[in-house]
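Researcher: Here's the sequence for the chain we discussed earlier.
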Amino acid sequence: MPRLNTRDVIITTYEKEEVILNGTYSLPENPRGIIIFAHGSGSGRYSPRNSFVSDVLYHGGFGSLLVDLLTSNEAKADEETREYRFDIELLTERLVYATKWLVNQMKDEDNKNYPIGYYGASTGAAAALAASVAVNEDKIASIKAIVSRGGRPDLAGNSNLERATAAILLLAGGNDAPTIALNQKALSKLKAVKEKRLVLVPGAGHLFEEKGTLEEVARHATSWFEKYLML
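Model: Thanks. This is the structure I predict for it:
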C-alpha cells in the first residue's frame, strides 16, 4: 500500500555556516510518533533497507524523516575519501539540526508535538545515541526511544554512552560476530538507560540481506517504538 503523505524536504541551517540537507518526510493519518532515520557508512535517505523499515513503521502508524546527514558535495567526496562517514561529531550535529527542523515543522503545520524517536544504522547509530543526549539535555525535544540496526553505538564515545537515557534496542545479525561484540561493549556502558536490549536476528549478516531478516528488524523496531516512544 503506497504512502499517502510523503514529500521531499530541504533542511537548511545557519548555526555555523549554511548547510543544506535533503530529506524525505512521511506522515500517516493521526501519527503515533515520528522516527528520524540516521544513515551511516556511505548510505543516505534512499537506502533500500531503511526505506523498507520506514514503510513498515508508516503502516504501523509512525511517520518518518529519512535525511541525508551529508551535503551533496560531502557525499561525493566521501565516496572517494571516506572522510565523513566516521565523523561522528559531524553526523551528530546534523542529526540535531534535523531534529530542530522537525520540531519547528510540527509547530508550523498543525502545532502538534508528536513523540520523536531515532533509528540508526551503522555509524548512524552512534550519531543517534549522541544526538539523543544533546537533544534531551538541551531540551530541544524528548527522545525516548532509539533502535540501532547493525550499528556502531560504541563510536558515540564513553561520555555519551554514560549519559544516554533513551530506551535503546540494539539489533545485530546473528552471524555478524564483530558487530555483536561491539554492541555488547556499548551495552555495558549504558549505565543510565533503564530499558536496553541487544537482539540477535538469526541467520542475518551485517547487511541483513538474507531472506526474512529485514522483516524481523522491522517487526522488532515497530514493537520497540510502540512500547517506549510514547511513555
